[in-house]
Amino acid sequence: MTTFSLTLREDHEAALRDHLLRGDGLEHAAYVLCGRAGIRREPWDREAHEKFLSMQVIPVPDDQVLDAGPGLITWSTASFVRALRAAATDDQVVAVVHNHPAGMIAFSAQDDRNEPDLVQLTVNRNGEGTKMLSLILTADGQWAGRVWLLPQAAAHAPLRMIRVSGARLTLHYPGRGLAAGLPAFQRQALAFGPALNDDLSRLRVGVVGCGGTGSAVAMLLARLGVSQVALFDNDIVDRTNLNRLHGARQQDADLMRPKVHVVAEAIAAMGLGIRVVPVEAWIADPECRDALRACDIVFGCTDDHDGRLFLNRLAYHYLVPVIDIGLAIDAGDGDPPALRGLDGRVTVLGPHETCLMCRGVVSGEAARGEAMKRAEPELYERRKAEAYVAGGGNPAPAVVTFTTELACMAVNEMIQRLQGFRGPGGAVAHRVRKFHLGEDRRPRHDPRPACPVCAADESWGRGDTDPFLGRVA
Fold first, then answer.
1. Is the whole-model pTM more than 0.90?
2. Euclidean distance between CA atoms 144 and 162, whole angstroms
3. Averaged in consecutive runs of 10 residues, what is the pLDDT profile of the chain (473 residues)?
């Protein structure tokens, strides 16, 4: 069985609302061109899943509308054919969108009669097997949708979820906020309402890196009620990180157990019904791709530059918000060492936000050195000796209280984007906590004009490409 979902960029949803919801009591129409993510098997339910990702909104002009009322709209198909032609050029899928002024969050009998003709036109123009999406926006801002598989009556499947992703992450699915939920999370609902608990229980969240910050993030997600978590790391527990790795014990270090299995077992022992999938691999390895693309949010807790560059692209390519976390402790000489800096950082990546390269967080040179170390370790050692690559220095300082506080900051940013407890404008895309100064800062960085990741939107929502994420290595 294959399930389906849609991610709308927040600016695309705003454009659709402006065009469709005019307060005139009439139906209006538009198209959305979508990229795709074909997930062969999700790690939690073992089902195939196809995500559609918004790339462009095309309003149906009023002068092409033939008839419109509170419960119907018909328009010339010329604009639809143009949308199909554009979609075929870029291997996209067309979504047909209209509003229901009366607020009905279900497809009407008129929709059921008219849409198979559009699907037939889609197949005739773009080929057998071409899908078409159909979306409804109600007057109160609710979304519903389905994907047509064949040009026949009732040959459609529901979109199990529609995400609107930006400064807020809004989820639309049947019965939202009506689930009873576990008693363990009832007091959480007293603070944030039952809908947040429902959203958290449906989220698929990835944690990349299971060290000091990543293990803390994973534990917090589980205790919040995020029911589906994927852990990515190819490192083992050792004695030097026992004091920071949440859930780890001495015997885990003695047995050199993989961090992902140690953290997964600690979460399972909570008894909260969390389904945890451990993936023992480096994040850019092919075996990670299905689980990563299946995620609704990813926390980047890795300390390698190449892994961060990979997640940097993922956030824009697949419209998956990546919350990246970093800690830098600048300790000088002396006993005790003089602390010149103790900075924690939480950065949210995605369309209309500045990427890690443009913020100066990651180094392309360091990433190339890391890639060489993985692929050609002997060459890496020779180049390092010749000072052609950086690396191999002393381990970076780390303190569990600061890594754990950073995890709290990052997870609270996720809660803000889901629930909005800080109010409008409360999302912070780049926060630096100066622990040694007792203050937070929000440095501003603009995209570099030539940045292929965050300065232009050609790859935003592109989804599956060959090579993956456009990376040649």
1. yes
2. 7
3. 97 98 96 98 96 98 95 94 97 97 89 95 96 97 97 96 98 88 91 95 97 98 97 96 95 97 97 97 96 98 94 98 96 86 96 97 87 74 51 73 97 98 96 96 95 95 94 62
160: left (phi over 0), alpha (psi -120 to 50) or beta: alpha
On the question of a cis peptide bond just before residue 174, with omega within 30 degrees of 0, the verdict is no
Per the listing, tokens 């007293």 go with 190
Return the DSSP state at 236. Answer: B
Q: Which residue has 């929709």 as its token pair? A: 111
Cα torsion angle, 34, 40, 46, 47, sign: positive
As given in the structure block, the two tokens for residue 186 are 């009832």
Cα–Cα distance for residue pair 244/55, rounded to 1 Å: 41
Reduced 3-state DSSP string for 434-470: ECCCCEEECCCCCCCCCCCCCCCCCCCCCECCCCHHH
**Closest residue by Cα to residue 231 from 239, 223, 219, 241:** 219
